[in-house]
């Protein structure tokens, strides 16, 4: 199944994969060799830690390679329109607090709430998809129901 991802998200995954393969993997192989040189592996905490780290690195490499292989790369700068779709940057007004918040709808692999990038599969994104500026959106969340008004929909 193809997964949508922005060009920026795709490039970030490629950079992480390169770093893991070129920097992290050789470093952990070296750490394992160093720990082996200390003798008895049955009581060697350094060896165990290095092997655990190697497992983590190899798992992350496989995960990123799968994400890259299934990526449907979308250039958000070529998108336009007044409806919320993948790649849209949406400015919302919280009807209760009168505070504005802006989110970009991105692929699962690049979602980062701290950077206001929400997954296209998130409840918030699903509630916004297909809506336009001026529309009201009700989001039922664990913390309760929230009401938003869509202030703007842009692509950049």
How are the secondary structure elements laid out?
Elements: E1 3-6, H1 7-36, H2 45-69, E2 71-74, E3 89-94, E4 100-106, E5 117-119, H3 123-128, E6 136-141, E7 144-154
Parallel strand pairs: 1-2, 4-5
Antiparallel strand pairs: 3-4, 3-7, 6-7
Helix pairs in contact: 1-2
What is the count of helical runs?
3
The mean pLDDT is 94
Q: Which band does the percent of strand residues land in?
A: 25-35%
Major pleated sheet: 5 strands, mixed
Helical fraction: 25-40%
Spatial extent as radius of gyration? 21 Å
CATH domain fold name of the largest domain? Chitinase A, domain 3
Domain module tally: 2
Task: List the quaternary state of the chains.
Answer: single chain
CATH class of the largest domain: Alpha Beta
Query: Which geometry do the CA atoms define?
Result: elongated
Task: Tell me the strand order in the biggest sheet.
Answer: 5-4-3-7-6
How would you classify the helix and strand content by structural class?
alpha/beta
CATH architectural group of the largest domain: Roll
């Amino acid at each position: 199944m193809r997964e949508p991802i922005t060009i920026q998200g795709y490039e970030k995954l490629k950079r992480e994969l390169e770093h893991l393969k070129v920097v992290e993997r050789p470093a952990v192989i070296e750490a394992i060799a160093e720990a082996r040189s200390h003798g008895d592996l049955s009581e060697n905490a350094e060896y165990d830690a290095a092997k655990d780290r190697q497992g983590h690195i190899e798992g992350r490499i496989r995960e990123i390679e799968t994400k890259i292989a299934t990526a449907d790369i979308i250039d958000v700068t070529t998108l336009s329109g007044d409806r919320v779709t993948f790649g849209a940057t949406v400015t919302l007004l919280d009807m209760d607090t009168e505070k504005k918040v802006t989110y970009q709808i991105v692929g699962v692999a690049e979602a980062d709430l701290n950077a206001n990038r929400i997954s296209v599969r998130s409840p918030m994104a699903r509630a916004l998809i297909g809506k336009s500026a001026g529309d009201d959106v009700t989001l039922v969340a664990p913390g309760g129901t929230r009401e938003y008004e869509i202030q703007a929909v842009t692509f950049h």
